[in-house]
Amino acid sequence: MINQRFLKMPRLGETMEEGKIVGWLVKPGEAFSRGDPILEIETDKTIAEFPALGDGRLQEILVGLDETIEVGQPIASIEIGAGPDWTAQEGDDEPALPAAATAASTADGDDLAETDLLMPRLGETMEEGRIAKWLKAEGESFARGEAILEIETDKTIAEFPALAGGKLLTILKGEDETVAVGAPIARILAPSEAGAETSTVEASPAQARDQAASLATHANAASSGNGARLRATPLARRLARARGLDLTALKGTGRRGRIEKHDVLSFAQDPTRGLQPATGPAEQVSSVALRRGRMAYLDSGAGEGVPLLLLHGFAGDRTTWAAIASGLKRAGRRVIIPDLPAHGLTDIEETEPQGLGSDLPELLKSLDVDRVSVVAHSLGAFAAVMLAQAAPAKVRALTLIAPAGLGREIDTGFIAGMADAQHPGEVSHLLRRLSVQGADLSEPALASLTKALSAGRLKRLADNLAGPLGQRIDALSPLHKLSATLPIRVLVGLEDRIIPWSQVQALPPRIAVHLLARSGHMPQWDQAKEVLEIILAQGDGR
Question: Which of 14, 121, 327, 331 has the most CB atoms lying inside 10 A of its own CB?
Answer without folding.
Answer: 327
